[in-house]
Amino acid sequence: MKIGKIPTKLLDEVIISPSKSGVKRSEILLSPNIGEDCAAIDFGGEICAVSTDPITGTSDNIGKLAVNVNINDISSCGAEPIGIMVTLLLPPECDEAELKKIVKDIYESASQEGIAVLGGHTEITDAVLRPVISCTAIGKTKNRRIISSGGAKVGDLVIMTKYAGMEGTVILAGLDKLKGKIDSDLINRAKSLKNQLSVVKEGQIAAELGVMCMHDVTEGGIFGACYEIAYCSKTGIEIEADKIPVLDETKAICKFLNINPYRLISSGCMLISCPNSNSEKIINELEKNGIKASVIGRITDGGKYIIENNKRIPLNEPESDELYKA
What we know:
CATH 3.30.1330.10; 6-stranded mixed β-sheet; globular
C-alpha cells in the first residue's frame, strides 16, 4: 500500500464498518467515521472529547507538531483542549540531546496552548528509523455542545482559515535538496510558519458563534479535507480552487518539488461550514482576532467538485499526501 493515510474506501471497509457492529455504550456520543477525528464521551457533566494522531512524516519540530495536530482535532469539535498524553519512540541512534530537545518542544508548545502534559511512554526501539510521536489529546465541551465534521448542510458556505499547505511547507523547508536552490530568506519564512499551526482560537470563535461543522486540515490537504466533510455529511461540495489562499513560500517550494499545495498536509488551517446568513459575522470575528478567513466554496446536494480554470473537475477521495512525493 502507499505511504500515508489508508484510502477512504479501505478505511471504511476495514476499520469503520467493524466498529459499527462492536460494543455499543450509551456514554459514547460520537464514534468513528470518515473525516471524524474525535470521539465524544458523556461522563454525566461536560462531555469529554478525545483524539489521537501520530507524527510520522518528519523528525524536525515533531514535539511542536504533535501538540498542535492533536489539540487541533479537539478544537475542531468545539471542545477546549485540556491535556495531552505522549508516546515517544526513538531509534537506538538517537542521543540524549535529541531526546531533551523533543521533550522541551512538547512542554513549551503545551504551555503556549494552556494544556497539561498528562503522561505517556518513552522508549528506545529498533522498530523505528527516526523519532515517532503518537499522542492522545483530551478536551471538554462548553455547555455540552459537540460539533461534528459531518454537520454540514446543503446551502452552507465553506470557510477556510489561514493558508493551504502550511504544515507541509514547514516540513519541506527543512529538506537539504532546497539549499542553494531557493532563497534562504524564503526558507526561513517558511520554517517560521511552525508558530501558526494551531487552530484552537478559530475553533473557539466558530463554536461560540454556533457553527455546526468544523474540520481541521491535515493529510490530504484542503482538497482531502473538503472531500471528508462532504463524505461525512452525506452531501455534495463545490470548491473554487482560485479562492484558496496559498502563501508565496508554499508556492515556491511546491513549484520546485513539483507537488500540489492543495493536497499538501495543512495543519493550521480549518474548514468551517455555515449558513450564508452567518458567514459574514464569522469571517469578521475571525479577522478581528488576526485570523485570515476566506469563502472557498459551498455545500451542495450533488457530487463533489473542484472549479478550476472555469472547469468542473471531480473531487476524488484523498490519496497519499503530496508530502511523501518529496
